[in-house]
Specification:
- The protein has about 90 residues and is of the alpha+beta class.
- The protein has 3 helices and 3 strands, in the order H-E-H-E-E-H.
- Strand 2 and strand 3 form a beta hairpin.
- Helix 2 packs across helix 3.
- The longest helix is centred in the middle third of the chain and has 13 residues.
- It starts with 8 loop residues before the first helix and ends in an 11-residue tail after the last helix.
């Protein structure tokens, strides 16, 4: 089933901290440059739209289908924790 739920950034951060968001094995490792990451954060500060982040759910966890670099960049900006922390679970 496909849903189009909107959830807050804080809820996503909480789920990441709890280990409930995972990167599937087939996803590439985090590959964004510092400049690209800064551009995303700048876009958010300006209120510009960014592409959706897509997940699928399995066994009570959310797996990132699309948008892992965006998600990890946002997480890193908010928490100060390196985006490489979530390189492949599940």
């Amino acid at each position: 089933m496909i849903t189009h739920d909107r959830i807050s950034v804080h809820e996503i951060i909480d789920r990441m901290d709890a280990g409930a968001i995972c990167v599937p094995e087939y996803q590439r490792l985090f590959a964004w440059s510092r400049e690209k990451s800064e551009d995303l954060i700048d876009s958010l500060h300006r209120g510009l739209p960014i592409p959706s982040i897509l997940f699928y759910e399995k066994d009570g966890k959310w797996f990132i289908e699309d948008g892992q670099c965006r998600l990890k960049t946002i997480y890193s900006y908010i928490t100060g924790i390196s985006p490489e922390r979530w390189n492949h679970d599940g």
